[in-house]
Specification:
Distance between the termini of chain A: 53 Å
CATH topology of the largest domain in chain A: Cobalt-precorrin-4 Transmethylase, domain 1
Strand order of the largest sheet of chain A: 3-2-4-1-5
Structural class of chain A: alpha/beta
Low-confidence stretches of chain A: 69-78
Helix content of chain A: 25-40%
Oligomer: homodimer
Order of helices and strands of chain A: EHEHEHEHEHEHEHEEE
Number of helices of chain A: 7
CATH architecture of the largest domain in chain A: 3-Layer(aba) Sandwich
Number of domains of chain A: 2
Radius of gyration of chain A: 19 Å
Chain lengths: 240, 240
């Protein structure tokens, strides 16, 4: 009998935003797996979970999740990246083959830009019968909207979520959608801000950094934001 | 001292998808408020919560949330709808003015199409000093993706969320975005399906009905869906 792999969204940072299900499965799991070498390292996911559930005595696996890998370069078969991915796959399968259940922790919600899904395809390719349960979590998008006191959409509103690391169609999207969420805005904030100013959308914008974490910042006036103060967990929500 | 109004996302249906914070605040609240006259009535929100937290002895307020009200018709001041909204505002303020904390329950996440936000503006207009805390929850969008085992976005992917009750720009959006989530697809499913067929996106689509609820259905092949079997809590996720 193969063990079950539970992929658990632990929410955006506030330990109380773990779901009851996340807390229960983590409590029941003897082995936790966290991605290594991600922004802020794996310590962030564990430090959040630790405040809600005791992890004493559990085995912690830090798995390599190379950043650059995407589904579209699947064919770059013998690269360094692929070696690291295979290593991670083997570590996880090693446990599951022994019948050990494994809880894989992801920040926010697994479906929203979590690199776990690169692994998911690979695991199912090797073991189509594998039991993988995905436990949704509170996404940083929803948490940021809550902290800023704004709705992402009402009635017939159209919502767009963009990674914000390319500016190509931003203007068109801002024109066509009622709400535009610009994730990971830290590297392009100044460009974004000047586009929003040009489109007279400054009053409709709010910048949220590290929603729900202890050092959360909310800028209701985005003109007060300095790009160099932002980090990976920053987003701008434009609400028309 | 005014009481605190906590607006609580209770998740999409599975009682275990309540957050620890939602469960705690509901436990601590003497008064729960649920919207009345919504799809499936207020009983749905209460029946979900009941399975996770005892609500014995709590006062339950069923507040009117007229469906058609939108921010843009604010000026229709003396309509029946406005009377009902004012009634709801008064019931809520009545409790808060007595210093009683109130937990307002919303399905999914409050920021995602919850009518609470119509009320939010009105409450803050009357009482700018009001303490309103919004507790984010697991949105049905994230839960549906988890249940279907698909990612909403990876890397630089662009995600669009549409209410799906108008077809106007659907083709353009399907062309421009990597993932398109069509909410409340029940009334337009056949139109959507034939557009997806025309765009050769049938293989990229999955239909999820009532994710996380006891009668959840997942259609990996959308050609097997019959529109009349779908209800309000149905969505199609198109993932290119």
């Amino acid at each position: 009998m193969l063990g079950t792999l539970s992929v658990i969204g632990i929410g955006p940072g506030d330990p109380e935003l773990l779901t009851l299900k996340a807390a229960r499965i983590i409590k029941e799991s003897k082995v936790l797996c966290v991605p290594k070498g991600r922004e802020e390292g794996s310590s962030l996911a564990l430090s959040i979970v630790k405040k809600a559930v005791s992890i004493d005595g559990k085995e912690i696996i830090e798995a390599h999740f190379p950043m650059k890998k995407t589904r579209t370069n699947k064919l770059a078969a013998d690269s360094d990246l692929d070696d690291k991915w295979n290593e991670t796959v083997e570590v996880i399968l090693g446990k599951l083959r022994k019948g050990i259940d494994l809880a894989f922790l992801t920040l926010g919600d697994p479906a929203v830009y979590s690199t776990f899904f690169y692994l998911y395809d690979k695991l199912l390719e090797l073991h189509p019968e594998l039991n993988i349960e995905i436990i949704p979590g509170v996404s940083s998008v929803n948490a940021s909207a809550a902290r800023a006191g704004i709705s992402l959409g009402l009635g017939n509103d159209r919502i767009a979520v963009l990674p914000a690391n390319y500016m190509d169609n931003l203007k068109t999207t801002l024109e066509a959608f009622d709400t535009v969420v610009l994730m990971k805005v830290n590297k392009v904030f100044n460009e974004v801000a000047s586009m929003l100013a040009g489109m007279k959308l400054v009053e409709n914008s709010v910048c949220i950094s590290r929603a729900g974490m202890e050092d959360e910042k909310i800028f209701k006036d985005i003109r007060t934001v300095r790009q160099e103060e932002l980090n990976y967990f920053s987003m701008v929500i434009v609400r028309k």
